[in-house]
C-alpha cells in the first residue's frame, strides 16, 4: 500500500464524534468532548493515518465507559496533517532501493513534536511507543508499567515502516503483539491500550480481578466455572462448591501451575526461576 501522488487532495471532512473524542482536520491533538476529564486522568495520544479507527473497540464496554467518565483520555493526531506538498505526502521510496514505501522522518518527527506538547519528558511517566513486529513482545508486566505512568504516545506505522532516524532521535520504544505482520499499527495500538487502560484504578470496578487473571503472577489463569452446576453431564468440581476458600485457593493455584507447565513452558521456567523452584518438579508422567 503506497501513496498515489496523482490522487486528488483529500477534502476536509466534517467533524466526527466517537464517544468523547472528536476527529477533524487540525494540527493539534483531538481532545475529548463533553464533561471535563478527571484531574490527572491517564492519557493516550495516537499518531495515525486513520484517525477514524479510534476509539474503535476502546469505545465499548468497560474501557468505553471509563472514557466517558473521564478516567482516561484519548487524543488522536492525524499524520496526514503533517504531510508534504500539495497532496500531503507522508512517505517516500526506501533509500538504497527496495519494495514499498517508508514513512518520512520529517513528517513523523513533526507529528511527534506536536504530540509531545504538554507531556512530561520522563519516559517512565510518558513512554513513546512504535507498534512494530520487531519490537519487544507485549506482556502483562509491560501493560502494568504503562498503566502506572501519566499516559503514552503511540505511533501507528504503515507501509514498510518508519525512517529509522526518527526512532533513534526520539528514543522510541518498539512494541510487538507477536511474530506476525499487520497492515498497520492501529489494531495493535488498540490492543495495547485495552491491556493498559483496564489496569487503571476504577476502570474495572473490581480491581482484585486483575490480580487473579492470566500472567499477573507469571502463571496462566486457573479454569473458571459458573451455573448451572451440572451441564451436559459435566459437573462443577466439588471443591468449588465446598465453601472452603482456603482449599479452593490451593486448588486453583495447582491448576494454574499445571496449565502453565503444559501450555507455556517458557512462562513456567521463568516462574520457577523467580520463586526458586525446580521447573521439572511434579511433572506428570
Can you tell me about this structure?
The protein contains eight helices and eleven strands. It has two domains: 16-197, Alpha/beta knot (3-Layer(aba) Sandwich); 213-275, Trp Operon Repressor, Chain A. The longest helix has 19 residues, at 245-263. The chain has a five-stranded parallel sheet with strand order 4-3-8-7-9, with helices on both faces. Strands 1-2 form a two-stranded antiparallel sheet. Helix content is 28%, strand content 16%.
Short recap of the structure:
With 285 residues, the protein is of the alpha/beta class. It has two domains: 16-197, SPOUT methyltransferase, trefoil knot domain (Alpha/beta knot, 3-Layer(aba) Sandwich); 213-275, tRNA(m1g37)methyltransferase, domain 2 (Trp Operon Repressor, Chain A), CATH 1.10.1270.20.
pLDDT < 50 stretches: 1-26
Major sheet attributes: 5 strands, parallel
Average residue-wise pLDDT: 87
The name CATH uses for the topology of the largest domain is: Alpha/beta knot
Counted by DSSP, the helix tally is 8
Structural class: alpha/beta
Amino acid at each position: 500500500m503506497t501513496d498515489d501522488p496523482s490522487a486528488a487532495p483529500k477534502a476536509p471532512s466534517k467533524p466526527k464524534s466517537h464517544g468523547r473524542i472528536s476527529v477533524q482536520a487540525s494540527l493539534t491533538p483531538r481532545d475529548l468532548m463533553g464533561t471535563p476529564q478527571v484531574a490527572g486522568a491517564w492519557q493516550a495520544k495516537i499518531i495515525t493515518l486513520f484517525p477514524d479507527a479510534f476509539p474503535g473497540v476502546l469505545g465499548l464496554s468497560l474501557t468505553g465507559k471509563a472514557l466517558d467518565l473521564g478516567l482516561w483520555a484519548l487524543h488522536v493526531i492525524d499524520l496526514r496533517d503533517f504531510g508534504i506538498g500539495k497532496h500531503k505526502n507522508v512517505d517516500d521510496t526506501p533509500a538504497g532501493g527496495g519494495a514499498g514505501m517508508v514513512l518520512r522522518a520529517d513528517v513523523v518527527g513533526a507529528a511527534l513534536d506536536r504530540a509531545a506538547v504538554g507531556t512530561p519528558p520522563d519516559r517512565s511517566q510518558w513512554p513513546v511507543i512504535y507498534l512494530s513486529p520487531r519490537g519487544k513482545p507485549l506482556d502483562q508486566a509491560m501493560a502494568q508499567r504503562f498503566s502506572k505512568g501519566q499516559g503514552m504516545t503511540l505511533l501507528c506505522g504503515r507501509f514498510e515502516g518508519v525512517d529509522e532516524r526518527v526512532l533513534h532521535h526520539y528514543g522510541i520504544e518498539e512494541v510487538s503483539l507477536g511474530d506476525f505482520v499487520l497492515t498497520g499499527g492501529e489494531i495493535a495500538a488498540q490492543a495495547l491500550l485495552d491491556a493498559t487502560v483496564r489496569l487503571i484504578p476504577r476502570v474495572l470496578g473490581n480491581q482484585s480481578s486483575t490480580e487473579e487473571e492470566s500472567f499477573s503472577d507469571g502463571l496462566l489463569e486457573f479454569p473458571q466455572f459458573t451455573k448451572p452446576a451440572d451441564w451436559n453431564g459435566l459437573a462443577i468440581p466439588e471443591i468449588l462448591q465446598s465453601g472452603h476458600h482456603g482449599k479452593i485457593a490451593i486448588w486453583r493455584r495447582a491448576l494454574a501451575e499445571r496449565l502453565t507447565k503444559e501450555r507455556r513452558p517458557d512462562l513456567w521456567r521463568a516462574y520457577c526461576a523467580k520463586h526458586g523452584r525446580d521447573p521439572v518438579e511434579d511433572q506428570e508422567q
